[in-house]
Amino acid sequence: MAGGSLRRPKGPPPRFTRKPPTANESQPKDIIAAMNRRKKFSFRAQNGQTMTEFALVLPLLALLLFGVIQFGIAFNNYITLTDAVRAGARKAAVSRHQSNPEAVVIDQVRTAATDLKSPDLLVDVTSNWESGESVRVHASYPYSISLLGLVVKKGRLNSETIERVE
Fold it and tell me: Domain limits of the chain?
């Protein structure tokens, strides 16, 4: 045979049969049947399990998410209040020659607290307005953390800064 071509044998293709299991490999048919039954049973028992678990966990996740949002709003208000008090104290340090330095400082704190409602913001300024003495600026703002309409915590955010009058 020239060219090295392969010939296919005549007749039907050979059938591969499985060798009978040896003594170490044999498994009783009832164990295999029990495994198949267990698989069928377990799939049937878990229908809707994921949806049920999701329905149970979703309210808890939503409550946690809303709590984080409420805390973030209160923390943002605190940062704004602290920055406004700092700006007011800096203004107080250089305002001793004003005719009414306390009013100038309170106005500066209210102007710097852009995200806070001005009527709810309480500002207190204490000083004798002498050069080298201290000026204390204190402010407070209400906060309320509520989840699903229920108030969990409420109170007032407080911030205070002390500067030396120039």
Answer: 53-164
